[in-house]
UniProtKB/TrEMBL annotation:
Cytochrome b/b6 N-terminal region profile domain residues: 1-110
Protein name: Cytochrome b
Keywords assigned: Electron transport, Heme, Iron, Membrane, Metal-binding, Mitochondrion, Mitochondrion inner membrane, Respiratory chain, Transmembrane, Transmembrane helix, Transport, Ubiquinone
Main localization (coarse): mitochondrion
One cellular-component annotation, GO: mitochondrial inner membrane
Topological type in the membrane: Multi-pass membrane protein
Matching Pfam families: Cytochrome_B
TM region(s), chain numbering: 51-72, 84-102
Gene3D superfamilies xrefs: Cytochrome Bc1 Complex, Chain C
InterPro entries listed in its UniProt record: Cyt_b/b6_N, Cytb/b6-like_sf, Di-haem_cyt_TM
Organism classification: Eukaryota, Metazoa, Chordata, Craniata, Vertebrata
Amino acid sequence: NFGSLLGLCLITQILTGLFLAMHYTSDISTAFSSVTHICRNVNYGWLIRNIHANGASFFFICIYMHIARGLYYGSYLYKKTWNIGVVLLLLVMMTAFVGYVLPWGQMSFW
């Protein structure tokens, strides 16, 4: 069931995000250096960051498979449920975008 996988991915993202937030600095001038500090100096910081980054990709894979299953079985006929799912998808996409630009690396400026 992809709903269960989505829940597991969400819990993993929240936990790793909390661990990363303990060492992250949100100031524009020091944000990128705090990310490198997490990867180089924090115990298993590189692992937590990679789990967080790859977990986001896996989360979206599960979301798209969940949507595909819903399309295949005709779940879009339940308008309210489908619309709530679309709103949740848009919220997750916005959250992922913010998380993508948060480190203020070179890719954040593109």
